[in-house]
Write a structure and sequence with these properties.
The structure holds 2 protein chains of 2 kinds.
Chain A lengths: L1 H19 L4 H33 L6 E5 L5 H9 L3 E14 L2 E10 L9 E4 L6 E4 L7 E5 H7 L6 E4 L2 E11 L12 E6 L3 H4 L9 E7 L2 H11 L7 E5 L5 H49 L4 H41 L10 H26 L22 H16 L2 H31 L5 H12 L1 H33 L9 E6 L4 H10 L8 E11 L2 E2 L8 H8 L2 E5 L7 E6 L10 E5 H7 L6 E6 L2 E13 L10 E3 L10 E6 L6 H10 L4 E4 L1 H38 L2 H13 L4 H38 L8 H28 L2 H7 L1
Parallel strand pairs in A: 3-9, 6-8, 15-20, 17-19
Antiparallel strand pairs in A: 1-10, 1-11, 2-3, 2-7, 2-10, 4-5, 4-8, 6-9, 7-8, 12-21, 12-22, 13-14, 13-15, 13-18, 13-21, 16-19, 17-20, 18-19
Helix pairs in contact in A: 1-8, 2-7, 2-8, 2-9, 2-18, 7-9, 7-10, 7-13, 7-18, 8-9, 9-10, 10-11, 11-12, 11-13, 11-20, 12-20, 13-18, 13-20, 13-21, 18-21, 19-21, 19-22, 20-21
Chain B lengths: L6 E12 L6 E12 L3 E5 L6 H8 L7 E6 L2 E2 L5 H11 E4 L11 H11 L5 H11 L15 H13 L5 E5 L7 H18 L2 E6 L2 H5 L3 E6 L2 E2 L6 E2 L1
Parallel strand pairs in B: 3-8, 3-9, 6-7, 7-8
Antiparallel strand pairs in B: 1-2, 1-4, 4-5, 9-10, 9-11
Helix pairs in contact in B: 3-4, 3-5, 4-5, 5-6
Classes of the chains: A alpha+beta, B alpha/beta.
């Protein structure tokens, strides 16, 4: 026991002495950055995740909605309140709104106080007037009506209209509801009233089409707990809806955001690993003598091993603690900063990200430190007599296998997706191998070139002499620089491309229910109002009845989304060519004048419903079964807000069925008269305003972009550590050699040039290879992960090469400069 | 110098061959000699004569191709690596040509290290006393690079003697020092040797140094020229 204690104390003393001598600064810094970045990313991802969820929930008007075809039991509401959730009841039904001789089919929404739980409600006092946010709901007897109804009824503030047996006064014009529904069938004119008025209208009768909703909001945990708790008790006709069940636009934006954030976290992990690996290698080199001397002074192998193990564990624990503290502070700063962007209350951070951070740090440290440690144990004691006996050679590349395994595990853990993990790991591994092989070839090639000047010859000879070390160094520098390039230039390109997936003139209004005979008139109407003639898409409604010969019903599916898809009618369309925002993922698009009956299905839908290429689908279109084989699967870019269809047929297959047309167009802000005359001239068409949804999606994207940029600052820091560690890794040897050269009479100028030459070559190699890697990575991320078009960036190559050569030369020079200024003897003694 | 007839080192038919080319390179050929406790023995020879290899073998830092070495009755190469380390810790002190001080440790800590590794209490007091003995009482907190070569070697000597070893092995202890400093270091080593009755075995090509020893073993081309009949000084 005392022996153990005295050994522990000795390990701590040795650690303290190493620390005092500055031996630990670099490895500790790498650890701290690794843990701090992983922790901050963890905390931040967690919080951004929540913030994004909330932001997206504004489109739902709540965090969770219970949708029911009967009034939601009050017991359920009471239970929700008990669970700490805020609740709002909503009743929705269609009815005719009557004012004098005009009557218009409207969708009525009756709500209780507190609506909306997420997002905001905006009204104006007059039609197309300036709107303002309100926190109230209509008083009993009052109604807020949307612009469409106001136009159709010719009603303004103070006017009265009838709903069923009741009379309501128009109290305001409704301009924005958070839970705006843009499903095509729900796009009638809208009226918002107080729930207290519903009974008096006499419109809620058995058999009438009424939808009931209980909206809920609260902390993420409380909502999820509640959702899970009530799931088994939901009755027939009841379901829950969270943001993830919401619109495909939101879902894809959220998924992209999460991918971006996990990518950022992964890059920090890999960089931190490289930095720690480099530091551990240097640590090993600098402790060879100490180990040999300790062995010479009578310490057993096991004892040396134990001493350094404790050394590393204590170092790891201390660095992890510091890293966590920084992570906590950084995320507090973030929460503050995030608060100014999105006014949502974030729950306090949990301890889990901290635990993840510490585990990551320790796994990386031990993964990279243990193998060299085992090698330290094998240091020949004879080294005390013969300095030329170096590190045991078995500890070369093989020692990194454990570290590599640690990184691989970490990546898959962090990626939470096999595909993303494999992509990142494969990308980095491939890049490392490629950079290594290329460097080796280039170093070999350099010899053939006649080099003039002793300094260049010496610098390059140096690189060649330590071929393996040089290759490792270029790989590390290249990875660090690649990360920096990706994080600066490529990131900007990507984020820009991402933000501009919504062009400023993206369609913001949908026009639905256009009759075939109105198509030409509507096109003429748009032209007459100076709006570019939008494409009109035919649309036939049909219910999916069979997949591959098997009848399907909602009961066949576990997945809620799939059940809903089966229950509702599909909008089928036909087209000769595939739209540009669709991408074929399987099969082939039809060609030729008479392609024959077949379907092209959106991939997400196919996955949800289990539809495979070659399956025959049968749709019931107005009583007629229409069957055809699936000959292609498409990926649809929902973010474009263009009109898109889950199922498309070739021309000549569906034309005989009753169809309506749909189109979308961009309405410049303030052009309200166009809307008014459109509604007057085509009273049957439905106008759907997607501007709000788009604005919210865009706000979310901007927020995510900023969040990602912030997280990348840590990644950047990790990248810089890698660069520093890579330069420092050979510094001792360089100082020693430079000292010898000075002793042999090399001038300061010659030495400076030799050092600059050596590092410039290293930097140039690393820079060019980093540019190649960054371009490849950007290509993969853009096309495979984010579905963005890839644009080639020349600056990446120029900056990579120039900044690589110049930056690394200067940094390397700065690190070795002291040799130039010190008298050789002093430098030699320190070397 | 107090000598006894007790053999502290017994080298018997030691040979060392390293792999090189087809046949290998023989560095030491069949070397045998004994060293009595308290004796001071110099091993001399030109560079490449194999004297440092021989010292490494006697310290158990390397293994021979043939033969045996006994230290204080223990067959060095019957012990495993850790057994030899323990024996060194118990019995052997080292002084090297290149001092081999740990650069991250102060003078005091360098001297404390062998005591700490052995788990001895009051390491600091003993180390302090030893450093005062070698005249570095004022330099306890200095790092090796802040000390002159002579001072560094004196720290190394303090470190070698602080464990009260029965045997001190020195490899060209004056090799990195100028003549005057070298003499001071040698004086110190022999003083301590006398005071503590340590057996001294040193490798050198400094004739002045070898003349101060009781016996000189001459190595040439890996062979002992004078063997057991080592010339007495």
């Amino acid at each position: 026991m005392t022996k153990l204690r005295s050994e522990l104390m000795l390990a701590l003393r040795l650690l303290w002495r190493d620390h005092r001598a500055g031996e630990l600064a670099l490895i500790a810094a790498a650890m701290v950055i690794a843990v701090a970045s992983v922790t901050t990313v963890g905390f931040f991802t967690d919080r951004v995740h929540q913030a994004l969820g909330r932001q997206a929930n504004q489109l739902l008007g709540a965090d969770l909605v219970i949708v029911s075809d009967k009034p939601v039991e009050s017991a359920l509401e009471a239970e929700a309140r008990e669970a700490g959730l805020k609740t709002v009841r909503m009743t929705r039904f269609p009815s005719m709104a009557v004012r004098g001789e005009r009557n218009v089919l409207a969708s009525i929404k009756a709500v209780t106080q507190g609506y909306p739980l997420r997002g905001e409600l905006r009204v104006s006092d007059e039609l197309y007037g300036k709107d303002r946010a309100v926190t109230d709901i209509p008083q009993p007897g009052a109604a807020w009506i949307d612009e469409r109804l106001a136009t159709q009824l010719g009603a303004s503030r103070g006017d009265r209209f009838e709903l069923g047996r009741s009379t309501f006064t128009v109290a305001a014009i409704l301009t924005h509801e958070p839970d705006v529904s843009i499903g095509f069938m729900n796009s009638a004119a809208r009226i918002l009233i107080n729930e207290a008025d519903v009974a008096a209208t006499g419109l809620v009768q058995p058999g009438s089409r009424i939808g009931y909703r209980l909206q809920l909001a609260g902390s993420v945990e409380a909502v999820e707990t509640f959702r899970t708790a009530i799931a088994p008790r939901l009755q027939r006709g009841q379901r829950t809806e969270g943001v993830r069940d919401a619109r495909p636009e939101i879902r894809s934006a959220l998924e992209r955001a999460e991918k971006f954030l996990s990518l950022a976290a992964l890059v920090s992990v890999v960089l931190a690993a490289v930095a720690i690996g480099l530091c551990a290698r240097r640590f090993l080199q600098r402790h060879l003598d100490a180990c040999a001397i300790m062995r010479c002074l009578g310490a057993s192998q096991a004892k040396v091993m134990r001493l350094y193990l404790v050394h590393f564990l204590v170092l790891g624990a201390a660095a992890s603690a510091l890293g966590c503290a920084i992570g906590v502070a950084a995320q507090a700063l973030l929460a503050h900063w995030l608060g100014t962007i999105v006014p949502v209350e974030l729950p306090p951070p949990g301890g889990l990200p901290a635990l993840h951070g510490v585990l990551t740090g320790l796994a990386l440290l031990l993964g990279f430190a243990l193998p060299p440690l085992a090698a330290l144990r094998r240091v020949p004691t004879l080294r005390v007599l013969r300095r030329d006996l170096g590190a045991p050679q078995a500890g070369g590349i093989a020692t990194y296998a454990v570290g590599y395994a640690a990184i691989a595990g970490m990546i898959f853990w962090k990626a939470e997706s096999l595909r993303l993990g494999a992509m990142v790991l494969g990308g980095f591994t491939g890049a490392m191998l490629a950079v290594g092989a290329l460097t080796w070839l280039l170093l070999r090639a350099v010899s053939g070139v006649g080099i003039r000047g002793v300094t260049w010859r010496y610098g390059i000879a140096n690189l060649k002499r330590r071929a393996l070390g040089s290759v490792l160094q270029v790989v590390a520098l290249g990875i660090g620089m690649m990360a920096l390039l990706v994080l600066t230039l490529v990131r900007q390109d990507l984020i820009h491309a991402w933000e501009t997936t919504l062009p400023p003139e993206a369609p913001n209004r949908f026009v639905v229910n256009i009759q075939p005979d109105q198509v030409q008139r509507l096109e003429a109407f748009f032209e007459g109002h100076g709006v570019a003639r939008p494409a009109m898409f035919p649309m036939v409604r049909g219910r999916l009845t069979e997949i591959a010969g098997r009848p399907v019903s909602a009961a066949d599916y576990e997945d809620e989304r799939a059940r809903r898809l089966i229950e509702r009618e599909f909008n089928l369309s036909w087209a000769e060519r595939m739209r540009s925002d669709n991408r074929l993922t399987a099969g082939a698009w039809w060609t030729g004048p008479r392609p024959g009956a077949q379907y092209s299905v959106e991939q997400g839908l196919a996955e949800s419903l289990g539809i495979k290429l070659g399956d025959t689908l049968t749709f019931d279109i107005a009583g007629t079964p229409v069957a055809a084989r699936v000959t292609s699967l498409r990926k649809v870019d929902w973010d474009t807000f263009n009109v898109n269809f889950f199922v498309i047929a070739p021309p000549g297959m569906l034309e005989m069925h009753p169809a309506s047309y749909v189109t979308s167009f961009y309405l410049p802000p303030g052009n309200a008269t166009l809307l008014a005359s459109l509604v007057r001239e085509f009273p049957n068409v439905l106008l759907v305003d997607v501007a709000q949804v788009m604005a919210q999606v865009q706000a979310m994207m901007e927020q995510v972009a900023r969040a990602v940029q912030f997280i990348f600052m840590f990644t950047l820091l990790a990248g810089l550590t890698v660069l520093y560690a890579a330069i420092a890794s050979t510094q001792d040897e360089r100082v020693y050699q430079a000292t010898i050269m000075r002793t042999l009479g090399a001038s300061r100028r010659q030495l400076r040039r030799a050092i600059l030459a050596e590092f410039a070559v290293l930097g140039l190699l690393a820079g060019v290879l980093a540019a190649a890697g960054a371009t490849a990575l950007a290509y993969v991320v853009a096309t495979r992960l984010l579905n963005l078009p890839f644009t080639f960036s020349a600056p990446v190559w120029i900056i990579g090469a120039v900044a690589g050569a110049a930056g690394i030369a200067l940094a390397g020079y700065a690190g070795t400069r002291r040799v130039l200024d010190a008298p050789p003897l002093k430098a030699m003694r320190e070397a | 110098m107090a000598q006894s007839n007790e053999k502290i080192i017994s080298v018997a038919s030691i040979g060392k061959t390293v792999p090189s080319g087809a046949t290998g390179l023989t560095i030491l050929h069949d070397i045998s000699f004994d060293v009595r406790a308290g004796e001071a023995v110099a091993i001399v020879g030109v560079s490449g004569s194999g004297k440092s290899t021989l010292l490494g073998l006697m310290a158990g830092l390397d293994t021979p191709s043939t033969g045996a070495i006994r230290i204080d009755g223990h067959d060095l190469f019957e012990l495993d690596e850790d057994g030899r380390a323990a024996l060194r810790g118990r019995m052997v002190g080292f002084v090297f040509q290149s001092f081999q001080l740990l650069s991250s440790l102060t003078a005091l800590e360098n001297v404390m290290l062998p005591l700490e590794l052995a788990g001895r209490a009051s390491a600091e007091a003993a180390a302090r006393e030893m450093l005062e003995r070698v005249g570095l009482g004022e330099r306890l907190r200095h790092y090796p690079k802040q000390l002159s070569g002579g001072e560094q070697q004196r720290v190394a000597i303090a470190r070698a003697f602080v464990t009260q070893p029965a045997l001190l092995l020195a490899d060209e202890p004056t090799g990195n020092l100028d003549a005057a400093t070298g003499r001071q270091v040698i004086d110190l080593m022999f003083e301590l040797n006398r005071e503590r009755g340590t057996t001294l075995l040193l490798v050198t090509h400094d004739e002045g140094l070898s003349r101060r020893c009781d016996r000189v073993l001459r190595l040439a081309g890996g062979r002992l020229l004078n063997g057991d009949a080592a010339e007495a000084v």
